[in-house]
Design a protein that fits this description.
By secondary structure, the chain is α+β, with helices and mostly antiparallel strands. The chain has four domains: 198 residues, Alpha Horseshoe (Serine Threonine Protein Phosphatase 5, Tetratricopeptide repeat); 76 residues, Alpha-Beta Plaits; 114 residues, Rossmann fold; 103 residues, 2-Layer Sandwich (Hypothetical Protein Tm841, Chain: A,domain 3), CATH 3.30.1180. The protein is built from 19 helices and 18 strands. A six-stranded mixed beta sheet has the order 15-14-11-18-16-17, with helices on both faces. Strand 4 and strand 5 form a beta hairpin.
Length: 544
């Protein structure tokens, strides 16, 4: 039977179906990588992003507006990688419309999806056509233009999928890199599987499906003996709440989050994270008087959830009050050696991740809180991590965040080399860091996993390739030969320093052989070697 409307329960089942379909094809999506390297992670990132949303919803929620709001909040915090962040913005835009309803028909759904286009495009500084953005936009516009007042929910999704398939195939025509590698856009393919899973629930192909990978965090054991009758409250309370703005108190549509921030500032709140999605306000604050905070913000609406924890009881957020530092440096790193090196170079916080393991928006926010500084300088060190870092920065209000768009660990290394404690001119420091990162030629050496032709170079599965500043500039039978070919290709006359980061799988004998080759070939250059311990890449090289 065709559905004229759907409510929160049905939408929840559809979202679970989308996650199931996506997860079943996650590896296939991971493999849709332009470069033939074993670092594809789009499918994994998008699945983890959906997990964040599913962990926030209940199938008992009858209101589609309430359900959508909770899901949008979850995917926003769980967003990983570029496609994950864009996906979170798509659902944020959809939620802005769905939040008005308890149930919707095809027309209302189409309006919500069209708002998802607006929201997702605005989240990307320079939107690229031939990606998930294009497929979502074209399929939404096509479905919206071809439904009428008599159309069912199934009609909307059937049209949406029909156009998405066609649009996905055309991504090769829009992006030459996809055509040359003979692959479609991975994020767009992931989106198609999501909407196919949602439609499969509508048609009964997937029935009673719950995405099993979503697991609730086990209840943390609290040692109440850490706070006795003789204790004094030193650290305050970690207070979190979800507030729904209500029309009898404020105008939810025009309400500005600045009103909440003003209250928290007046009450001396610390480690504040506050943002608004639709008519939902999410707040995290450290305060000695949670009752005062709750009483004041209740003037704006009513609570959906409230959590208050005494920070003396050993929770992960417990920390002794201290004066904020002028600035902290937060960097993303993979491999024990790289993490240790970056810490030694002055990084205050390390977020684990990189290629194949992109950190989420929420992981960045957690790290921002730990920095507890007036300014936080962020080195994402991966082009697929920058968007999540930026999204986290927009949600965090307790420090000024400076995102340095480092695209690899070598640029991060160069950036860290100019950071000196005690600097007070933050703007000058940021400019210096940006120049240092841009001045590094970075190359990553890894093994190809399939045959492909890129940039006129014939590459066979098993070959070693050098990806230098985003382009493949050398191909060889061994990783060591690829390094030497890469150095020869860039021309070393203008460079003085070569820094080599050795991967986890490289033996001591191979490392010694390569370092001797470099020293013999470039005796006028200073060579530094670190055991990076990184996965995927046998070697990473920074040339300055």
């Amino acid at each position: 039977m065709q559905r004229r409307t759907i409510d929160g329960k049905c939408f929840a089942e559809m979202l679970h179906g989308g996650a199931v379909m996506l997860s079943e094809h996650a590896q296939e999506i991971n493999d849709l990588n332009v470069f033939p390297v074993p670092d594809g992670d789009t499918g994994t990132n998008m699945t983890k992003t959906l997990e964040g949303g599913l962990s926030e919803i209940s199938s008992d929620s009858e209101s589609i507006g309430e359900l959508s709001g909770n899901f949008a909040h979850g995917v926003l915090l769980g967003a990983r990688g570029n496609s994950g962040v864009i996906l979170s913005q798509i659902f944020a835009g959809i939620n802005e419309e769905l939040s008005k309803y308890d149930k919707v028909g095809a027309k209302e759904l189409a309006r919500a999806y069209k708002n998802g286009i607006k929201k997702s495009y605005s989240a990307v500084q320079n939107p690229t056509e031939g990606t998930i953005l294009t497929v979502f936009r074209e399929s939404t516009e096509y479905a919206a233009d071809n439904i009428n007042d008599e159309s069912s929910i199934e009609d909307f999704f059937k049209l949406h999928i029909e156009k998405a398939r066609h649009s996905l195939a055309k991504t090769k025509d829009l992006l030459p890199a996809l055509a040359e590698a003979d692959v479609v856009d991975s994020g767009a393919a992931g989106y198609l599987y999501i909407v196919m899973g949602m439609y499969a629930v509508l048609t009964g192909e997937l029935e009673g499906t719950i995405y099993k990978s979503v697991t609730e965090n086990p209840t943390e054991k609290i040692d109440i003996n850490l706070f006795t009758r003789d204790s004094r409250l030193e650290f305050g309370y970690c207070t979190e709440f979800l507030l729904r703005l209500t029309t009898d108190k404020v105008d939810p549509d025009s309400f500005e989050i600045a009103r909440v921030l003003s209250v928290l500032e007046e009450l001396g709140g610390e480690s504040v994270v506050a943002y608004k999605e639709g008519d939902i306000v999410k707040v995290h604050v450290h305060t000695f008087k949670p009752g005062d905070v709750l009483s004041r913000v209740q003037a704006f609406g009513e609570f959906l959830t409230v959590k208050i924890e005494n920070m003396s009881l050993g929770h992960s957020e417990s920390a002794k009050p201290k004066e904020k530092k002028k600035f902290s440096v937060l960097t993303v790193a993979s491999g024990e050696g790289m993490s240790a090196l970056f810490s030694d170079m002055g990084a205050d916080e390390i977020v684990a991740g990189g290629q194949t393991a992109n950190p989420s928006t929420e992981e960045f926010i957690t790290a921002f809180k730990k920095c507890d500084s007036e300014h936080i300088i962020v080195l994402p060190n991966n082009k697929n991590v920058i968007l999540a870092a930026k999204q986290a920065a927009e949600m965090y209000n307790d420090a000024e965040i400076h995102i340095i768009p480092t695209k690899n660990l070598m640029q991060g290394y160069g950036a860290l080399s100019v950071i000196t404690p005690g600097i007070t001119d933050i703007n000058a420091l940021v400019q210096s860091i940006e120049r240092a990162a841009e001045g590094v030629v970075g190359s990553e050496i890894t093994r190809a996993v399939r045959d492909v032709t890129i940039g006129g170079k014939q590459i066979h599965a098993g070959d070693y390739i050098a990806i230098t500043d985003g382009e493949i500039n050398a191909v060889a039978e061994t990783a060591e030969a690829a390094v030497m070919n890469m150095l020869s290709e860039i021309g070393m006359d203008d460079y003085e320093i070569i820094t080599l980061f050795v991967g986890r799988e490289v033996s001591d004998a191979r490392r010694v052989e390569l370092t001797e080759l470099i020293e013999e070939s470039y005796p006028d250059c200073e060579l530094e070697v670190y055991i990076g311990g990184q996965d995927v890449y046998d070697y990473m090289i920074a040339v300055e």
